[in-house]
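Help! Submission page says 'invalid entity' but I think these are all valid:
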Amino acid sequence: MPLFHARVLVSLRPSVLDPAGEATRAAAGRLGIEGVRRLRIGKAVDLEIEAPDAGSARQRLELLSDRLLANPVIEDWTLDLQQAAGSQEG
Amino acid sequence: MTVGIVVFPGSNCDRDVAWALEGVLGLPTRFLWHEEDDLEGLGAVVLPGGFSYGDYLRCGAIARFAPILEAVRRFAEGGGPVLGICNGFQVLTEMGLLPGALTRNSDLHFLCEPAALQVSPGPCRWLRDYGADEAIVLPIAHGEGRYQADRATLHHLEDQGCVVLRYRDNPNGSVGDVAGLCNPEGNVLGLMPHPERACDPLLGGVDGRRLLATALG
């Protein structure tokens, strides 16, 4: 079974306040780093998944992201999917 | 009436709820381990506060998949009274039994203090003995209690009378000052404050006793 690497990035929706991001942005200024206008904190979830093909892997990961990794009430997500090197389809 | 109290790995208010219900109200209780799925003989279910499954991923996100919660969902959909306190409220939103989500407090602090609340009982069975705009005080203890829902959802909830508890002095940045919500049928209540910690005068207040007694007494 082919193996796929995936990274799901979960971020707070733009309308949702991110107090931790705002506190971190303020700390950047105290470190002396000027000009940080916006800082939002999300999560990166790295996965390896076996699936018959990329379409099937994507379908499962989309379901996983929608149902578990992100809460669509407050979060958006994006998926990056790549077949593992040396892993054969079929 | 026997009241079921769900116990997840990481629940830490389950015994407080049992103490309040048994010791103060004289009601029998039964602990329900998260792997159980039998609610036979129970008149109500409480999802207590704590940090279910360590609150990994998001508060209440993993708990949602516990076998006991499928039984609780059927119980709630059949009209059974369900109360979610603090982490229990977070679980109810993750399950979709109540809309919205609970997010990090706007000032990032864990808040542990008395909270003045305004009661608007609406259709809520848990608050049916209260008059409109009654004022009560219950303790809060949470880091992630900022209620979040989009404008349309909040308006819909308000139109249906489902925003049943509001902070009088919003401590955490919740939209609409939401401290507690019920479903339109009125049998499911989720709230961030802890009524079970306000049942004995020695603990500084008894406003929680009446809330628990209203639906369960």
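Support: the input was valid. A stray whitespace character was the problem, and the output above is from the cleaned input. The mean pLDDT of chain B is 96.
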